[in-house]
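HUMAN:
Just now I want nothing more than another pair of eyes on a protein record. I would be glad if you read both lines and explained how they fit together. I have put the entry right below:
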Amino acid sequence: MHLMKWIRKNTQKIMVFVIIFCMVSFVIGSVGLKLVVGLFGGNNQTIATFNDGQKIKTPDFIQAQSELSVLRMLMADRLLMAQSSSGIAGPLLVHLLFPESQLSGQIASQMKQAVQQGQLPISQDDLDDFFQQQQERPEILWLLLKNEAYLAGCVLPNGSAAETLRYVVPQLTGNQLDAAQLVNQIISASNITEDQILRILSDLMGVMAYGQKVMDSQDVTINQIRASLGRSKERIDAEFVKIEAAPLINEGAEITEAQIQEQFNAYKASVSGNPTEDNPFGFGYQLGKRVQLEYMLVLMDDVNMQVEKPAPEVLEEYYSSNIDKFQVMEPIDPDNPESEKIPKTRSFVEAEAEIRRTIEAERASTKANILFNEIKDKTESGFETLNFDEASVDELQKAAGNFEAVGEELSKKYNIPIISAKTGWLDAAGFGQDKILANLGVRRGQNFLQLRDLAFVAAEDTPQRQRIGIPSVRVWENLGPLSGGYYSEEDSKFYRLMALVRVVGIKEAAVPVDVNTTFDTRGIVLGEPTAEEDTTFSLAEQVKEDIRLLAAMDAAKARANELTRRMDGQDWDEAIADYNSEYTADNQQIKLDGVQQQLRISQAEVAMAKQIMLQSPASAQYLLQRIISSMLTDRLYALLPEDAETTGPIKTVLAFEPQTACYVVKEVVRQPATTTDYLDNKAQTALQLSVTQSAGLALVHFGPENILERMAYEPKRQEEADEQPIEEAAETEVETEEG
């Protein structure tokens, strides 16, 4: 009875406490709430151990939360991202310690792009592996990394942190704040001292310093910088005549079965487009990964025809509600573009056509989305009873809805034509050559995911590795709705479209068993295919083309040697004129040409480019051209006598197989790197060499799993923590080292 009276008397206080308790629970989460309750309840339990017995207790965890909060207020995420000297270490540390940061969400995709562009000397697989590791709580990682730096003696004085803040805060805030103002704001918000703030930042700098010490297994030397610049800034000029083999191909030449089989056997295991010493032409008949797609596609012009046209009052209401969209800034004096600008509003009459198009496009988009949502509902209903991740391919296929039947049904319902069909077997190159498939994609947040990326990560089983920024995809899983379009040269018009696509077949890269391999390579077809559009790929025909190209290359060499003989009694211009007059029917008029200021790239860069080509087939064509251009520059360079800066006048025949062409070289001139080149580029080159040496090691050093393993981190099991005696919790224990 007394309890009930007390409750009735203190109802308001109880409600206030409950509301505050719920708010705190929502903000800090269940783990944080448990720790706070434990702390105020006198709980000093051990959360985990590391380094063979050191303990992380509840107060340590809460202290780590507070320190990371201070670092956020110090804009430590932006500070780490700006540390160019740290290579990728700074961004990786942002990913570990500040996962909620807006910058953290962009790191994986930015690094992926850098790898694909050859700016980061690491593999895509290693990068994917890093970002797929099980992420530990930032507080735990902060405690471990900080302790590791202490043990290694990487303890920086507070003065270093203060100097860093004085330098970077104005830059990070656009001179809106200086270091003193920022520190005072943190003191007011957190009730801690300036020395404590600087100590926390010094700890972060110590973690970075230790990481840099580990990754810099060898310093970049002056000789390394000079050697790198000496090659990369050395320029080559050359004059030559180029005789291409392609115009000399004899399409009617007889090719025997023995020739076909010999050529096929020699290169059936090679990847096409990878010229090497053993395979200078870059022949290759290995079949790359191919996918087959099923699609449902709608042209937006067909949707527009079913959209109600906006009434005049709707147009006027849109204009009134969005008047700011029709304002432009114009100079007061039309004759003086630099004069003061004032806002000018376009009249309704001027904007009416634009408003009509905008409203019609919005209505068409809404109608198309309604249509595709119903398509997805009907084609995915069979998946509701499946465990999608564990279902077999056969189960997925049986559960997947029938695109053709659903398309016919909904086409009649909405009176909108829906195209349903399958593609042939497409590799990455075929994907890029199809004008519709190459542009299809779906927007996820701020990223536009290309269909080609989604299609080529598709797997029959649940994939073990997920590509950065690309969700896992299984066969028979709907992708989309996707948006895209294509330009029709015949109509001189760009057509917008939407589509739903699924991968219905996968063939992994493989060595072909038989030279007579054929398969269909058609992409998305909007109308009836014409007889001229043969989309059948024949491996035997490709082999025949390569054999004819080899014969044409021999003919080009003979022509090059003939040109040099003509020069025995004539100058270059006369010899070229005589050649052109004799071979007017070859569709190839030669001329004296050349290259200037060609830079050489290192073998390491070439190797990296080849690695990127394998991992990102979409980039292959661009990178292959860069590799071949570099190979030509090296071949021209090799014509120079040792330590000479020019060959002088020559007439050397240079057969260059990667381009299937022969060059008759007149002169090569080498321009060594200058002192100015060295002074202007030494800092950047040193940084690039340092990043090259340390990038791969940074992924290892800052890998969450590696951090936990090398620090011997062992979390306490829940039952151990709950059963810990009060007496044991009250004993003096080894605390985590603090500065």
User: Anything to note?
Assistant: Residues 235-275+541-672 form one domain. The chain has three domains: 54-219+689-730, 235-275+541-672, 290-508. Residues 609 and 623 are 6 Å apart (CA to CA). The chain has a mean pLDDT of 81.
